[in-house]
Structures are given as structure tokens and as C-alpha cells.
Amino acid sequence: MMKTRLTTILVFFFVTGIAQEKDSVMLSKIHEEILLRGECYDNLRYLCKGIGQRLAGSESAAKAISWGKKTLEEIQPDSVYLMPVEVPHWTRGKHESGTYSAMAEDGQLKPVSVALTALGGSVGTGGTITAEVVEVKSFEELQALGEERVKGKIVFFNKAMDAALINTGAAYGGAYPIRGKGPSEAAKYGAVACLIRSLTLADDNYPHTGATQYEEGVVRIPAAALSAVASRQLSKDLKANPGLKFNLELSCEAFPRTMQANVIAEIRGTAFPDEYITIGGHLDSWDIGEGAHDDGAGIVQSIEVLRAFRALGYQPRHTIRIVLFINEEFGNDGGQTYARCAKEQDEIHVAAIESDAGGFSPVGFECDLNDHQYELLKSWSGLFDPYNLLRLRRGGSGVDIRPLKGGRIALFGLSVEGQRYFDYHHSNNDIFENVNKRELELGAAAMASLAYMLDQTGIPSEK
Amino acid sequence: MMKTRLTTILVFFFVTGIAQEKDSVMLSKIHEEILLRGECYDNLRYLCKGIGQRLAGSESAAKAISWGKKTLEEIQPDSVYLMPVEVPHWTRGKHESGTYSAMAEDGQLKPVSVALTALGGSVGTGGTITAEVVEVKSFEELQALGEERVKGKIVFFNKAMDAALINTGAAYGGAYPIRGKGPSEAAKYGAVACLIRSLTLADDNYPHTGATQYEEGVVRIPAAALSAVASRQLSKDLKANPGLKFNLELSCEAFPRTMQANVIAEIRGTAFPDEYITIGGHLDSWDIGEGAHDDGAGIVQSIEVLRAFRALGYQPRHTIRIVLFINEEFGNDGGQTYARCAKEQDEIHVAAIESDAGGFSPVGFECDLNDHQYELLKSWSGLFDPYNLLRLRRGGSGVDIRPLKGGRIALFGLSVEGQRYFDYHHSNNDIFENVNKRELELGAAAMASLAYMLDQTGIPSEK
Questions:
Q1: Is the pLDDT of residue B463 over 50?
Q2: What does the H/E/C string look like for chain A?
Q3: Its pTM surpasses 0.90
Q4: A438–B387 CB contact, under 8 Å
Q5: Looking at domain B93-251, which of 3.50.30.30, 3.40.190.10, 3.20.20.60, 3.40.980.10 is its CATH number?
Q6: Higher confidence at residue B103 or residue A178?
């Protein structure tokens, strides 16, 4: 009995040892391939500089879809195709400006021009709106002011992200409701427009856009984000002159919804062709900056996973799908459509990996897993350790892949060292130059490493 | 017996639990203080923009010493003083240039001006040296060429750092001997000058300097580093025209050694005033760029630890010394002098923490510890985890504190996410704008957190 057990244990360690050695070699090859011969950085340059900003519904997004399809086809997977997705169509228009007159130190009125940008989905001002400004920090303060002191005015939500939080995503989450709900809340008290402080941790003059959501049945008022610097200045000027008149012009326009597409490439699995591992990011970006970190990085990293597998001659056991999702930013249409199609086709999705936290150095994975899957992931930490993938935390995954949730699927988001992320996010500062080549490549290699391990090991269901 | 043991165990966990809770609260306070009211970023701005580059022996380094003393005094520790240190005095001079003529695509000779900079300590060219260039990748290739093919020529070591290595410090270490020994090795075969490819992982046009060490008894030949782009271009032009003549001018000069100083601030310990915990970085930098990451960051972070302790009213049990070391870059005089003085005074040094890996997001600590100390450090990982200080690896610590090694002392280097470090290191690209405020502050908070834990817990000797 003892002998048998010992033999069993030795065989187990021997087999496990060989497997770990083989996996360790493959992870090393993946990293070498991507760090020495990677194409993701050049792809990102083209996506940012050759195509640029690509809001869903725009011509530029259509160009990005064509580029994505062509780029994936050049890698020669088994198939590349488009999945039609209905997306909104909204334009910022040519004019956006905010001005007012403030008292200078010499007692003279001086004109101030504010760095601002319309929130995504905002209605236009139809000419210029001129009104007094009431500053609040929260919905509670707004409520306390009441209709009497808000009606006919512009509400200015001057709430900064909490810099004391280590997790910048949590700091973003804390300020996010103001961008999403602020305009409708202000409108309920009769405000004529809404300004917010940009959601950023940087103290600079870039305004940051992002989607706002109007509440059904509430008057839609124009809404814009001021830069951190402009917010501080306006707050100061309001203290000196509470009656100052703010002139706001936004020429945003909404058009009927239109058809665009997710871009999908497949390598068929040798052992489990009907079981899918999805790897992706979102191809759309906001319409300012170049969408370099958000989420050009995730797109070129996903493509790089496919390229590296091909270059290394790796034949996956499961079917691998690279998905360039359309419209994460403004309704998550790509992710929802993909999950709906998967359900309609009775597809078996076993895992999905998303990169949408910026092209920074990878530090691990955020994961949405059952206990068995999490144990499996943790058992790989020795393999991931040499690549500094030490943070294996349960929690989120990615907006595009989340609709796949349910049943057996294991969901992963690439976790990165993202202290700088919100300095760039949704602003003119999110450009190619602010992405580091090695950091981007290491992220792609981390995704390929995880995809390889999931593909080799298989993904356990609950019990 | 059982009951007693159980009680003991329960008391232990209760006491440990209270201690951990108290420590956890303090670490949170430290982070909040530094992230919300930190002064290190403004201090770095002044050190970089108000003083700038500060090579040991220069007037600018003298200004930095005065600034460091004044800045520490403003925090009102128990004492601030200067420790005299003898340092070298070398200047780059006004001229450095490299030119040659290369065949353009139209068949015409075109003049090429190369981005280069003298290596630290290089002799000057005394006018212009004009000679043919032999390109090699290693000392072995140089040896294989031999005196016959090297004599009278300029040796060009065109060896890149290994981009496949995940640890950029290891990649630097692999290419480092060429910068240190290359000129003397080339001189042994009769070379008249030496060029090296800059030690960087970026593909750009910044040349990177750094110390070279001439071997005793070998002719000292001028030495310079070419940017990555210039190195690739020269290599290509040499293939097309192996006989091209390279013109090198360097007006470097060496002067007699001179006196500068380490700047030291102390808070006396309440329980162990004669046991020292040293926290520091190096105040000198190379004489190009602004020494922002290397090591302005470490300087302002060390000062910030003191400021945060004072702001929080923390009275350390051990004596805490903040040390701004002079001349790490060019002989480690500050670190050696500090350790020698400590020995001469029979001081008991129990721990030292250095930040000299750049002002990037902290990820943990590199440590030079005995087994007991390492176990202690690992027992704190639950406290460090919320701050992403997950990497607790044995190995290095810091150049300035290493001479303290021996006996009981525990040595720590702040470990950072440093994929970008060598893009900036020793070049005109190491400027304030390339340091992120939050990343810098988080590093300071990590150092303060570790210092607090070491101070509270005490540092075990071996056994």
C-alpha cells in the first residue's frame, strides 16, 4: 500500500514536473517571440496615427474595422469574419467652448476660456447658453440647494477622484456616477446645463470625456467636462464672483443608430473545436485623443497573441477566437451582441481574456472564476512569477466579455500597473507616444501565456 | 498543558491581531498623508528645474547639497549636518561631436552627424581624432580581430541590451562590462578611441552616458556612447563603406579631487537611540538630463519619509537617518564614506533602505537579509498587499547602502515597475516630466511603511 502510494506520488510529481517544464519553456518562447519580434507596437502606431480616434458609428471606426480584418487576415488564421453590430451614432460637432468673465487682480474683468469637452451622448446647446453657475460636490448638495436655487442655472459638479485610494479604478468608480447621472439629476431641479470636473488624477488642463446616460422622462440638458485646472479656476472665480455668467456652446448631434461590426478571427482547436477561448479588447475609442491605451493597446495585444501562436507554430486544443469588439464605450453593443450570438448558436465558451486597462506593464489577472478555476489559476503562480504576474485577484474581468458570464466560463482581465491610466483616459492625452513598447509587449505576452495555459490544461467546471 | 498552550496561542493571536490592526492603520495613514499632502513631487520639480543636473564635484552638486540641507532643516528633525566626502571632478566640456560621410541613395556622399555623448571619466580627444571604425559585438570579437586590424582605428562596440530579459536590470548588467571595460580593452589592441552603443532598451536618438573605468597601465583613449538610432545607422553605413573615416571630438577634462558632502538628517529613537535605520538615495546625477529618476526620485522620497513621520507625529523607537549620498555615479564615495564613518564610530546599524531604481510604481522590496529577517519580512506581506508591494525578493539592495553590509544589518532596495527605467537612465531624457506624481508618492509611502515596520518590530539578528 505504502509502496503503491509512493509510486503514485512519484509518478504524479514526475508527470507534473515534465508538464511544468514544458509549460515553462513555452512561456519563455512566447515572451521571447513578442519582445524580440513583436508587431503590436507598430500596429498600435498605425491604429493611432494612421486611423486615429474611432468612436463607434464614425467613418473612422469603419476604417478601423477594415484595418482589423486585414491585419488579422495577414496572420492567416483559419477564418476571419465580421459580426454585424448595431451601434449609436453621435458626433461632437465642430464647436465646443466655455467662457466667462472673471475679476483679475487689477480689478478689471478678464475673459476666461475654459478647457472643456462635451460628455459622450450630450445634446447640443443650440447656440450659446448663458447662465449663472452653482457649484456642488455631490447629489446630496444638489438636493439641499433645491429647485429654487438651481432653476435656470448651470450645475457644476466639482468632485475630484479620491487620490488616497491605491486602486485608481476604485477612485474612478467613486466619481463615475456624477458623469453618468449628473446631467439628469441637475435637470430634475431645472438646471439648463451641467458641467463636471474631469475624471482624472492628473492636475493638468486636459478635459476627459466619457458617456453620460440621460434618464428616461427627464429633460436632456447639455453636459461637458472641465479639465482639473479649469475646474479649480472656475471654483475660485465663483467664490470671488458668485453671479458670474458662463457661456456654453456645444454642437453635439445624435443620428439614427447604424450598423458596424465586431471583427473575429479563429484558429480551430485540435482537441475541442467546439469549445471557445475568446481573447479581445475594444476597437472603438472616444473621439478625442487616439484611443492608444483605451483600448488600442488591448486590440493590438489580442492580435499579437494570434501572431505569436502562429509564429511559434502552436496548434491550440480549443478553438481560439480573437475578437475586436465594437462600441464598448457607448453602450457595450459589441460585447452584448457577441454573447447573444454565442447563446443563439449554443456555443460552449470556456474562457475569455480581455485587455482594457491600458498598455502598461502587466502585473497579473483580475478574474471572475469559480473556486476550482481559481485554485487552478493559483497553481500556475510559479510559472507566472518570472514574468511578475503576481496579482491574481478575484473581481472584475472586462466590460466586453462580461455578457458571456454564466455556467462554466472563466473570465479574465489583464491586470496592469495602472497608476497613470486616468491621466490619459478619454482625453487628448491618450496618444501613441504615451504607450511604452516593452510594457505593451509584456501585456500581450501575459495574455498569450494565460491563453496557452488555459488551452493546455482545460477549464474545470464547478465540481 | 493543552489548556495552557491554547491560552498562549489565543493570547498570541490576540496580541498579534491588535498589532497588525495598529500597523494596518498606520500604513493607511502614511499613504494618505503622502498621496494627499505629499511634497516630494514639488521637491523633485525644484531639484530638476531649479538646480538640474548635478554631477559630483560640480557647482550644481554643491547647490543641491545646500538645497538638501535646507529642505531637511525645514522639516525640523533633531539634527541636520553635512558629512564631508572626497569626490572626483570631471567635466564633459563644451564640445562633443561625431561626424562622418556616408554614401546616400543617390550615390553622393552626405555628411552624418551622430548623436553621441562622452562616457563619464573619458579623456578628451585634444582636437579631433579621425580614424576608420571597426565594429564588434563583444570582447571575443575584438580579440579575434587582434592588433593588426584594430591598431590606429576606433573600436565600435555595437552590443544592445538583451530585450528578451524580463528584468531590465539584468539586461543592463549584461551590457554593462562593455561600457566599463570596453575602452581599455580596445586600447590594448592599439585603438585610438572607443564608441559604444548606449545602454538602453528604447529605440531612439538619446545617447546615454555612465562611468567607464580605465585599467591601470593601459593607454587611456577617448570613449563615447552613440544613441541606439545612431548605432544602427553607423553599422549600416559601415557595411556599405567599411573604410569610412569617423571624426570624434570630446573636450572632457579631469581636475583634482574635491570635497563635497553627504547630507544627513536624524530623528533620535525613543527606545534605541543608538541603533540606526538609514533611509536614502543619491543626490548626484549624471551631467546630462536632470537626474529625475536617477536619483532625484530617491532623494525626494527619502525626504518625504521624514516629512510624513513628522506630519503624523510619529516618534521612532530607533534613530532614523535620512542620508542624501553624494557621488554614487562615479565611485560610490558617499556610500563608502558613510559606512567607514559608521565603523569608526562603532555605530550599530540595524537596517537601511535605498531608493535608486527610479520614481516608478513600487512593487515590493529587493532585500539582502538573513533567513530570520526574510521570514519577518514575509510575515508582513498581508500588510503590504493592499499597496501592491507583492515582490519580496532576496538579492540586491542599493549601491549607496551596500558598504554597510555585515553583521546584523538588513538592507532593502525599493523595487519598482521599471520597464521604462533604461529609456531615461543617464540621458537627456531623464527629466522631471517623465516622472509621474502618484508613482513617485507611492514609492515614498512604501519606504515609509517599511521603515515604520522595521522600527516597530525591531530587526532580528541571525538566530
A1: no
A2: CHHHHHHHHHHHHHHHHHHHHHHHHHHHHHHHHHHHHCCHHHHHHHHHHHHCCCCCCCHHHHHHHHHHHHHHHHCCCCEEEEEEEEEEEEECCCCEEEEEEEECCCCCEEEEEECEEECECCCCCCCCEEEEEEEECCHHHHHHHHHHHHCCCEEEECCCCCCCCCCHHHHHHHHHHHHHHHHHHHHHCCCCEEEEECCCCCCCCCCCCCECCCCCCCCCCCEEEECHHHHHHHHHHHHHCCCCEEEEEECCEEEEEEEEEEEEEEECCCCEEEEEEEEEEECCCCCCCCCHHHHHHHHHHHHHHHHHHHHCCCCCCEEEEEEEECCCCCCCHHHHHHHHHHHHCCCEEEEEEECCCCCCCEEEEEEECCHHHHHHHHHCHHHHHHHCCCEEEECCCCCCCHHHCCCCCEEEEEEECCCCHHHHCCCCCCCHHHCCHHHHHHHHHHHHHHHHHHHHHCCCCCC
A3: yes
A4: no
A5: 3.50.30.30
A6: A178
Instruction: Compare CB distances from B164 to A35, A164, A417 and report the shortest one's residue.
Output: A35
Q: Which CATH number fits domain B31-90+256-457: 3.60.130.10, 3.40.630.10, 3.40.50.300, 2.40.30.170?
A: 3.40.630.10
The verdict on whether A328 is a catalytic residue reads yes
Q: With beta carbons under 8 A apart, name residues in chain A contacting B434.
A: none
Residue A463 banded pLDDT, cuts 50, 70, 90? very low
Q: Shortest CB distance from B166 goes to which of A36, A387, A420?
A: A387
Q: What residue segments make up the domains of chain B, in order of their start?
A: 31-90+256-457, 93-251
Q: What is the pLDDT of residue A399?
A: 97
Q: Among 3.40.50.1580, 3.40.630.30, 3.40.630.10, 3.50.50.60, what is the CATH number of A30-87+256-457? A: 3.40.630.10
Task: Provide, rounded to the nearest whole percent, the portion of chain B with pLDDT above 70.
Answer: 96
Residues in A closer than 8 angstroms to B35, CB to CB, are 163-164
Q: What is the mean pLDDT of residues A90-115?
A: 93
Q: pLDDT, tens digit, for every residue of B326-366?
A: 999 999 999 999 999 999 999 999 999 999 999 999 999 99
